[in-house]
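Feature request, filed as a ticket because there's no other form

It would be nice if the structure record came with a short human-readable summary line next to the tokens. Right now we just get the raw output. Example of a typical job, pasted below so the devs can see what we mean:
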Amino acid sequence: MFRCIGRLAGLIPAKIGIAFAAILISGFTVYASNVNEAEPNNAYSTSDTIYANDTVSGSVGPQDLSDFYEITVANTGKLKVKPLATTIGQDYSVWVYIYTPTVSGAGSVTSSYVSAAGTDTLSLSIDPGTYYIRIYNNAATNYKFTTVFKTQEEVANDVGPNEVADSATTIGLDQVVTGRVGYWRGSSTALGNKDKQDYYKIAVTNTGILKVKPQVMTVGQGDSILVEIIPALGIAATGGVYRTYSDTTTDTLAFPVEPGTYYVLIKGDFDGTNYKFITTFQTQEEVPVDVEPNNSGDSAIPIVFGQVLTGRIGYWSPPISATDRMDFYKIIVTNTGILKVKPQAMTIGQNYSIRVDITGANWLTTLTGKAVSSAATDTLAFPVEPGTYYIRIFYYENDPALTYFITNYKFTTSFQTQEDVPVDVELNDTFSHAATIGLNQVVTGRIGYYSPNFSTVDSSDYYKIAIATA
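Raw output as currently delivered:
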């Protein structure tokens, strides 16, 4: 309507011949114009001005390789160009380009498409600004194309630049955030750039589950976004969690974290998409936690018998820049007897389990172990000789449908001393190493205990006796 008023007022570019028809849509008059190219228009500086809903006709060839058209849009949306090579019966086609302006004004290609009497439409998601359409061929070809502009639902846009983590937009929990990605920007402040991704950062002060619930707001267009929770700068996306969301996806992205700064990344490389998301936080039961790092035997936490130990696993831990998948504790045994560990998974009602192992002197050899849930009351026990032993706790995948496995835990250690007897002298577990004994000799020993000296369980003892012949 406004365009029509301008044209009727004598503001139509004089070199373009037009014919237009009025179409009444919901009370507003939209003018669809038939426009013929007017030479010279083979450069940006001499481009023909056109408008949305125009049908443009022209020709290119050896002496006139390119025709340029200029279109200005005032809203965010999709600019669509439907081209057709109209030289019927000839194997000719036209190259159709949509350009965004550069700082120098020379123009740069942002998207291209080849049409040979086809029916495809070239589409580009754009922010407000001036854009250029170029038709090219070095063979004589007539062409026609129609321009359409579809305004996207307006949302409060993210405050840019926030394309990298260093310039991430700070947000808070329970804040509703809206933005858009995948649009080309033709404004004077960001000429020729495509907004491919948006970073947000959020500070977490407790241990728990950071949740992001995204929504694609450009409904029915097949658009999608990739949403990631990234735990720290310089850490690949696989360090956190991510998934693709369409306008029909309703899932919530969740990631167990310890206190720290985390990032939400929205990617829209494919097409222009408006989005909305909200972040929430579910605090887990607080327990006195193990001191990280203790994710190997080399960094195991020393403990003593009778001590009540608590900790947590399955959370992203900033001190180790990784998900804390296991915790190690070490304990010194000075007698022969039964080493006992009574564990409990404390994250009640969430179907999470821990696996608890007692390991030998090299902390990689499992002596005994089992999965323990929040309802378990069993005690883990293993017979040992004096030495240093390790208790390893790691999360156990109890339900494959779960996307993460987190557990607060608690355990105590105790020791049951066995009756001491004069023990057989190891190594005597093969015929070749049999201990020599005499007739009428009382022999004592023990088997079934783990022996740190030999890094194995003493499962058999051999003795040999010499009997003189008569």
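Something like this underneath would help us a lot:
The chain is about 0% helix and 50% strand.
The first helix runs from residue 2 to 11.
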